[in-house]
Amino acid sequence: MYKASMSQDIVKKKAAYPTELTEMQRRFCEHMIMNEGRTTRTAAAIAAGYSEKSATQEAAGLIQNPKIQKYLHQRLNEVNRGLVLTRDNYIKRQMMLSQKIEKEEKASKTAAHEALIGKAGGLFIETRINTSMSEMDFDERMKRIKELKEIQKDRTKLISES
What's the CATH fold of domain 23-81? Predict the structure, then answer.
């Protein structure tokens, strides 16, 4: 006779990045991440609380520590993921800038932001024809205008579906 057993090993979920860092090591890493490209390792070590006299040596040792390298790599990926440019983020940013400019009563500059919002949202489509209209007869012009309107309808349809 088969007897079912409910005893299973409980698997503990591991943290996304190393948790065994000391508080000073974590502060060093966070300073390096939040000031990437604007600070030196020595300045990050000093900001983390290491002695100014030994900060250069401490920073060199910290940056070679595998746990710190792993933490920096994972946290940088985490931070950078939030900075990815999407269509929605772009539109929100342009709308915020447009509202800010309106509040500052610089209406002439608002139009440029409104155009960018419209283009990003698919409301405005800039199309250029590189031909001389004077060389075209009336029927050819009307045909070209109809073609452009069809292209605009297709684009609007595709954007609304996505």
Answer: Arc Repressor Mutant, subunit A (1.10.10)
